[in-house]
Amino acid sequence: MKLKAFSFALLIALFATGAAQSFAQSPDDENVRGSFLTTRPKTADKPTKSSTSTRRSRRRPTAATAKTSTTTTTTASSIETSPGKTTEKTEGDTVKKPAAGQRIGVGLTLFIRDSNGLAVRVDPNHDFHKGDRVRVLLETNVDGHLYIFNTTDGGDPVMIYPDVQLDEAGNFIQAHVPFEIPSSLASDERLRWFRFDEHAGAERLYFVFTREPLPEIPIEDDLVKYCGENKATCAWHPTAALWTRLQKELNAVKAAKPEGYGRAQTAGEREAATRGIGLARDDPEPSLVMMNASSASGLLITFLEMVHK
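User: That's the sequence. What structure does it adopt?
Assistant: Structure tokens below.
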């Protein structure tokens, strides 16, 4: 994670489409949140002795690992094992069917570091000040690939995840296994949070989640090859055509009313994020839930906008 790109003193506001959301309670609100949460398993997996609190590879699972791995969701999706071929994930002796026809959903929770060093849910419209630190927890309802881009003052986007220095340059995310950015496992405390400073500016974090990898964007070995020896300063930028196509997807997302602010992150949430354990239905819900309007779409994009006052 290139934390230096996010040292800012900002007011954060969430946009789930090209315009601000009113977040008034509606039938769609319950439909979005309910559809997202019902795909969580009833109970979460228990940690095993082999589970360790270290950042792990997020490369695409091979056919062998997909067959033997234990998943944490009642909803399955196909995994690409080679061009044009897919395989089904299994759980024990139970073969799980691909999640055909399921709308893609993404849950986001913004945490702020309180005076005791704890992560506490915070309203994106909270007034932030110099020295405040925040972290984003992301959860999806299907397996897929996560890309995160940053723009500054409406400038050109730069990809900040996948990162050649993290997760073996992979970006594969399992359904309902939370992903945090920055990582709370970073060796340096300063790198575990986005830190707000005195510099004015307008920043956006774009979260792009897809069922299958986007062929135009390098990941894994392709990203390693692209960066070469410049791992510490490597920056990949999407083409104007690709960025325009991604922007159009912003208009196809529905958002549920935000909730749950002020509560501290639970031990279960943190353990899930750091040890690759899935969240269960009785775990806290994401503060914000976005879902595609159509099940035919294989991509969801949303963003957090951060504006300095």
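The chain has five helices and 17 strands.
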